[in-house]
Amino acid sequence: MATTLPAIAVAAALLLTTTMTMMASAYSPYQPSSDWQDGSATFYGDDSGLGADFGGACGYGASDIASLYSTYTAALSTPLFADGNGCGRCYEVRCANSRWCNPGSPSVIVTGTNLCPPNWYLPSDNGGWCNPPRQHLDMAPPSFYRLAARVAGIIPVQFRRVPCARPAGGVRLCLQGNSYWLLVYVMNVAGGGDVGDLAVKRAGDPDCNYVHASHNWGITFQVFGALGNKQGLVFKITSPQQTIVVDDAVPAWWTTGVCYQGSNNFY
């Protein structure tokens, strides 16, 4: 299934690449369910919880947020964002030890889709909520309201990493660039939610070896190679503890600026 992807400035991607490489990277092994950790949470953006504001630093567009993640998203502080490796990871969050917690302290599961940048002009205990080393989630408003009253502003939370359920089906691959340099946006990843490695080859060609992709920024991987578009593309994608092959997403005569979705996903 193919959908149109809005054009994204390559210059912006390269700028983000430079910026993100200056931040601490931490690609950690995925555990089916981690222990609860202490952190804090706020909310940001349009009250609907939808739109491009909720996915910029990772590479998600407004249509991706609406169709794949809805209002269950969060911008992650630097330690959780992990140089873009945190994009796509899922966290269960619950309000903890605050008079503003909703009755019963219900939890909500959100996907990391953005960066909450530091604000070095404010102290980390008074406005600089996303300053390292704080573990902070700046949530889409509807998700935050599941936890606490709007008037709270900021709340102490407990959070843990959990498996990602993706009811929208298989992995979605959005393509930019050209047949010699391909920028692949990897979305709707189930299981661990993040991608550790990606390789691509031409379909139906027994002599064609996989071309390894390097992590560019956020959810994007870049492939340097003359792939051409006369044949479909086969993607080998590795997430923590599992590797899958997506061979039914990108058909022959594929084009950039389009998103393709396969039937395969993790777990």
From TrEMBL:
GO terms for cellular component: membrane. Transmembrane segments: none annotated. Residues 55-169 form the Expansin-like EG45 domain. Keywords: Cell wall, Cell wall biogenesis/degradation, Glycoprotein, Membrane, Secreted, Signal. It holds the Pfam family DPBB_1. Causes loosening and extension of plant cell walls by disrupting non-covalent bonding between cellulose microfibrils and matrix glucans. No enzymatic activity has been found. This is Expansin. The lineage of its organism: Eukaryota, Viridiplantae, Streptophyta, Embryophyta, Tracheophyta.
